């Protein structure tokens, strides 16, 4: 159990999930939060003056030893990542995150925090298990025999193995949730790293603001995914961290939807219907992916359950607020005439 005074390190605190995790612990009254990210602090998605905020490059060994000092719990969310548009075009950058995971594990081996969580991903799963939209939900053992997502997936799978061997060889208590496409407010929705839920919200808002009622969708829209709202991600991460589950564990929604259905829901929220243009040569990743939650239910008695409609409503509103004030700006930057 994490005591309120135990020092907690959030690596990747300037990012989407990391920012929410810092806020989560502060709202629970935890007093010693060390928040670390490589981005300049004014680029952090969320930053809190109450935390011990440090801008450090955690690919560097010395930086990892510095931030590990006096830490009881480590949440390692630091990674060079994004949605399909990013990971397909930046395979080396994604794999170089291995330097962060390696150096943080070495620092943890020597500084001895009680727990070390490594954020893995559904991208570890073997491609051959994800070839059909009506996919059989992925069970933890479906990561082997391995054929992970190029670049990002292999780095995550390798780092999972390192966590296991640092536990076996050095007794470091590691925990490894496999996140399935996490979405929500205070995440990236533009610029190339965005994932589908945020991207579709942005595109629907642009169409609504511009009056140009059309939307570009990557692929044919029949590919399927499950999307997990950030609040379920935070709750699940805490439960896994504080559990005795040492093996990698799915942390994802099991509400399977097509990308066309995702667009339907966002259109309903926006109160608009758009003409769909399919960009079939865009990055599409696997054909179908879903989370089998039998094991997390069996081991923790809980599983993510926030509905996609509920989560998208809050995500859409937040992105609209980010885009709203600069409506005219949007017009200019996207070369479209803004309808008042
Ligand atoms: N990003 C994006 N933007 N995706 C779109 C868009 C768009 O405008 N339109 C349609 N899609 C389709 C993609 O082509 C893909 O088939 C699906 O939505 C989901 O794309 P995604 O959210 O970018 O990422 P994936 O689920 O394919 O993969 C992600 O999985 C995560 C773990 O579940 C990875 O990129 C990582 O973010 C992570 O491993």
Indicate the topology:
Blueprint: E1 8-11, H1 16-27, E2 33-37, E3 52-55, H2 61-68, E4 73-76, H3 84-87, H4 91-95, H5 98-111, E5 115-118, E6 120-121, H6 152-170, E7 174-175, E8 177-179, E9 182-183, H7 196-210, E10 214-218, E11 224-225, E12 228-229, H8 230-241, E13 249-251, E14 257-258, H9 259-270, E15 275-279, H10 294-300, H11 308-323, H12 327-334
Helix pairs in contact: 2-5, 5-6, 7-9, 7-11, 9-11
The structure holds guanosine 5'-diphosphate-beta-L-gulose.
Guanosine 5'-diphosphate-beta-L-gulose (GKE) is lined by residues 81, 83-85, 87, 121-123, 152, 179-181, 194-196, 199, 217-219, 223, 225, 259, 282-285.
Tell me the series of helices and strands, N- to C-terminal. Answer: EHEEHEHHHEEHEEEHEEEHEEHEHHH
- Shape descriptor reads globular
What percent of residues adopt helix (DSSP H or I)?
A: 25-40%
Give every kind of bound small molecule, once each: guanosine 5'-diphosphate-beta-L-gulose
How many E-type strands? Answer: 15
The tally of helices reads 12
* Largest sheet descriptor: 6 strands, parallel
Strand order of the largest sheet: 3-2-1-4-5-7
CA radius of gyration is 20 Å
Q: What's the overall average pLDDT, rounded?
A: 95
Describe the fold and architecture.
By secondary structure, this protein is an alpha/beta fold. Helices cover 39% and strands 14% of the residues. The protein contains 12 helices and 15 strands. A 6-stranded parallel beta sheet has the order 3-2-1-4-5-7, sandwiched between helices. Strands 6-8-13 form a 3-stranded parallel beta sheet. Strands 9-12 form a two-stranded parallel sheet. Strand 1, helix 1 and strand 2 form a beta-alpha-beta unit. Helix 2 packs across helix 5, helix 7 crosses helix 9 and helix 7 crosses helix 11. The protein is globular. The C terminus is likely disordered. Bound molecules: guanosine 5'-diphosphate-beta-L-gulose. Guanosine 5'-diphosphate-beta-L-gulose binds next to helix 3, helix 7 and strand 10.
